[in-house]
Design a protein that fits this description.
By secondary structure, this protein is of the alpha/beta class. Helices cover 55% and strands 12% of the residues. The chain has a single domain, classed as NAD(P)-binding Rossmann-like Domain (Rossmann fold), CATH 3.40.50.720. It contains twelve helices and seven strands. Strand 1 (8-12), helix 1 and strand 2 form a beta-alpha-beta unit.
Amino acid sequence: MTSLDSQVVFITGAARGIGAEVARRLHSKGARLVLTDLDVAPLSALAHELDGGGGDRVLTATADVRDLSAMQAAADAAVERFGGIDVVVANAGIASYGSLLQVDPEVFQRVMDINVVGVFHTVRATLPSVLERRGYVLIVSSMAAFAAAPGLAPYNASKAGVEHLANALRLEVAYRGVRVGSAHMGWIDTALIRDTKDDLPTFRKMLSTNPWFPPNRTTSVDKCAAAFVKGIEKRKNRVYCPGWVGLFRWLKAFLTSPAGETAMRKAAADLLPQMDEEVAALGRSTSARTEALEKH
């Protein structure tokens, strides 16, 4: 197990949710943190909470993962302040609402740009320093990489894409002493899940009727962050939260077979038309929080 004391950890999507709680846990273990996000107020509040505004162990950067130059500037600032980067947590991500026929094409593009291209930019900017330190990269995927859900196709596709990106990167850098992991979570009690529940009653129904999950079961952010930190300490190839999510990796072939898809096809027939009506009534294909950040 690798000690995190004095390790430099670069986290995207750090202002809230999983990213923020991972930052808190790493800070308590002595890590030095580089926290990036577009949401300035909570990012600043988190830095003040952790470091009292002194800046000795926390560096923040308001940066959009879609902008490679911004991510490079954040990585350069990390190296200048702390001497290098040991660990990267590519955590920033968003979701969209509605079927492929309903989702706003611009929102579909935004999901891909943040969830996939943003991971590439994060890794591309930080990897030279991680290679020097023989460090670790954790790319945040999802259980969605193993099991698709109707109405969430852009998110499903993005998380499957970054899982395979992690698999390829692991092969590319192993001989240079760098480890790469992917994180796969079920429904975590984050703003992303809460906003979707609030916006779409059909999403709540999907959670309660999905044949592959315990009814309405979400996992706390604390538990998820604890799994991430353990994965970082152990330089794991895969991090699962809850642990049973790992079973879905091995069941993927069945879940995409005609037999495995039967239940979800029925759910789609029952719920997807209603979901699309809800999305049309909202007048947006993503959360109000995500829309506000985009306009800002």
